[in-house]
Design goal:
about 400 residues, Butyryl-Coa Dehydrogenase, subunit A, domain 1, Butyryl-CoA Dehydrogenase, subunit A, domain 2, 3-stranded mixed sheet, 11 helices, globular
């Protein structure tokens, strides 16, 4: 199906970024946008307030081909990086929790198996995960080691032909609903990855409650108490810290696009409100201070979109570098958070309610700013690229 593009139809697309997309990319973006409009927007405020994620969405996301969509084979769609990014943009325009679910499922849990797993592991898990029949999570972060995973305390020791895993993982998206966890642990030969199915003796999880951010997302703690696994549970191609960090680069890429979606949705809500809210006899959109806010935010949004698209083209060409992904996450999440906060000011008192999206997006983006590498860590990655000096220690 061919799509047509009419420049100037979206006032927020000041630089006609949409015109730089292919027909296929626009079609994928529009398909995800319709799904979000039909299945997410009518309910997301309720999910956020209740602090829940509707697991029944997983098969629907799978049917659309959005789970592991940028991977090849095993029931995955095999789309381009840009198409995956555009899907993330539309998902996060609905809510960061929805994009987080898709990112963790596809770019962390599935990607770790696809990249580092055995053929048997791929056949066992990837088709079901792509269909949304099985949910995965990614156990790297620990209570005392977030930005410093090299010093994780989770241990895997040999016991005959088996492995014994002991440790705790924290802030794990999908953690308490996952059917399988990719768990990273220290061994005598360095960091290795293991697949831990739900129900394995000694493996438990709990949902983290009382969150002020990412409420429409399930965040869990994983507890491994002398979990015995066969060697076939080990990811055979994962050796060293570079393996989980490679997975994180995949997830961070989706955030570059996704955060722009949250910014776009916030700005659209503020623009619509400003045109309909009348004060002193005219819409507040007609006042100079409001227009300055809107103009500055629109420039920031369009800059973020151009950056995301450029990095997507680099990724599709196989030329992207880790520090470039850090540039994208650092800039776009920071920009999106500033936009969401500023949009709330245009909405006035109405902006603190769940009737409008900007403050919900702002709360969510506080988590996005921190996970998959804090803004401080990405700043130091960029600093190292500039100076050649690693300032992490």
């Amino acid at each position: 199906m061919m799509t047509t593009h009419t420049p100037g139809t979206d006032p927020l697309d000041l630089l006609d970024v949409t015109g730089l997309l292919s027909d296929e990319e626009r079609q994928i973006q529009e398909t995800v946008r319709r799904f979000v409009a039909d299945r997410v927007r009518p309910h997301v405020a309720e999910w956020f307030e209740a602090g829940t994620f509707p697991r029944e969405l997983a098969p629907e996301l799978g049917k659309l081909g959005l789970l592991g969509m940028h991977l090849d084979g095993y029931g995955c769609a095999g789309t381009s990086a840009v198409a995956y990014g555009l899907a993330c943009l539309e998902l996060e325009a609905g809510d960061s929790g929805l994009r987080s679910f898709v990112s963790v499922q596809g770019s962390l849990a599935m990607f770790s198996i696809w990249k580092y797993g055995s053929e048997e592991q791929k056949q066992e898990w990837l088709p079901r995960m792509a269909a949304g029949e099985a949910i995965g999570c990614f156990g790297l972060t620990e209570p005392d080691f977030g930005s410093d995973p090299a010093n994780m305390r989770t241990r895997a020791t040999r016991d005959g032909g088996d492995w014994i895993l002991t440790g705790t993982k924290m802030w794990i998206t999908n953690g308490s609903i996952a059917d399988v966890a990719t768990v990273w642990a220290q061994t005598e030969d360095g960091i290795r990855g293991f697949l831990v199915p739900r129900g394995t003796p000694g493996f438990t999880s709990r949902t983290i409650k009382q969150k002020l951010s990412l409420r429409a997302s399930i965040t869990g703690e994983l507890i491994l108490d002398e979990v015995r696994l066969p060697d076939s549970a080990r990811l055979p191609e994962a050796r060293g810290l570079g393996a989980p960090l490679g997975c994180l680069s995949e997830a961070r890429f989706g955030i570059i696009f996704g955060s722009a979606g949250a910014a776009r949705d916030s700005l659209r809500a503020a623009l619509d409100y400003a045109n309909s809210r009348v004060q002193f006899g005219r819409p507040i959109a007609a006042f100079q201070l409001t227009q300055e806010k809107l103009a500055n935010m629109a420039v920031g949004l369009n800059t973020s979109l151009l950056l995301a698209l450029h990095l997507g083209r680099l990724k599709d060409a196989g030329a992207i570098k880790p520090h470039q992904i850090s540039v994208g996450k650092l800039n776009n999440v920071r920009t999106a958070l500033a936009i969401a906060r500023e949009c709330r000011t245009i909405l006035g008192g109405s902006g603190i309610t769940l009737e409008y999206s900007p403050l919900r997006h702002a709360n969510n983006l506080e988590s996005v700013l921190t996970y998959e590498g804090t803004s401080e860590i990405h700043t130091l990655v960029v600093g190292q690229a500039l100076t050649g000096h690693a300032a992490f220690r």
